Amino acid sequence: MARIALWMLCLLPPLAWGETARVAVAANFAATFATLADRFAATGHHRVVASPGATGKLVAQILHGAPFDLLLAADEASVDLLVARGRVRPQDRYVYAEGILVLWSADSRRSPSPELLQDPALQRVALPNPRHSPYGRAALAALGRLAPGRGDLEHLYGESVAQTLVFVERGGAPVGFVALAQVGDAGGVARGSGYLVPAAFHPPLRQTAALLERGRRNPAALAFWEFLRGAEARRVIEAAGYRRGEAG
Q: Based on the structure, what is the number of domains in the chain?
């Protein structure tokens, strides 16, 4: 009987054992994604694994054939590009969160502010590389509003918003532009000290999810796509320090 039971189990379709989806995740969202992945795994058989990085580099990998099922980008324009290139159907995208930009210091005694950026004593500020990172482009726009005329201010570029945070933590720059979700939560900055950059000072960080062609054939990707649009995921995302995205 035991042999018959084992033989019958071998005949079960792969779905019974669960599937795995590969998700390209914007660096700012990596920690929040880890929480979502755990919650999702608890709902059924499937699981998701992340490949975090700067959005621009992730899009380049997708265009070169990287085997991702989903993309969680830090902006809309990157997904627009994938739609234009035929890698994403227009209906397979939506804004899952809006990011909040923070001028941050690892020193809780420091007070990041527009006045600090305008102080000639400040010589360096860290920000994500705007070539790859939507947060970097937002930071450049914010600098233009917060510190006009500071052409002498050195920019220390991180390859992603995650690396930018490390630069500030390790003293490479006294302050840097990062995502609120990296250093706080919905209630504000929780470690170090920070200044919440007004949303009007930079292009909106409308973080957009895309279901890629490969994901449309993957049960795990389809299940996570629905989970991400649900109420539980939205609660996790808002608690992490993002503004609400589109409703599911």
A: 2
